[in-house]
Specification:
Elements lengths: L1 H26 L4 H37 L1 H10 L28
Length: 107
């Protein structure tokens, strides 16, 4: 007679222990919140990778233009401060040259 009660009690205790373990695992540090955080990080990294891939493609296109187009080469060299053939470069020391508004008058 005692055995007839023992089996259902053991099964109920086992199910209760499994349920408690599942709750602890789902709500613990490795649970659902950690999974959501990792998915968020994955989305951020995927977006960053897509941005980097676009940047790489743009740089490849720029290198191809530099390789094939002489005008693009000249423009890039001038941006870097190189003087073109037949151009004259003036270095003015000690003065700051403004390209916008006129310099204020000093008295």
């Amino acid at each position: 007679m005692f055995r007839s009660y023992l089996r259902p009690i053991a099964a109920l205790a086992t199910l209760t222990a499994l349920a408690a373990y599942a709750v602890i695992m789902l709500r613990g540090p490795q649970g659902l919140s950690a999974l959501a955080e990792k998915q968020k990080q994955i989305r951020i990294l995927e977006e960053e990778n897509a941005n980097l891939a676009r940047e790489i493609e743009a740089r490849k296109q720029h290198v191809m233009r530099l390789d094939k187009d002489k005008a693009t080469q000249v423009l890039e060299l001038r941006k870097l401060g190189f003087v073109g053939e037949g151009d004259t470069q003036f270095n003015v020391g000690g003065q700051k040259i403004s390209t916008g508004a006129p310099a204020p008058a000093t008295h």
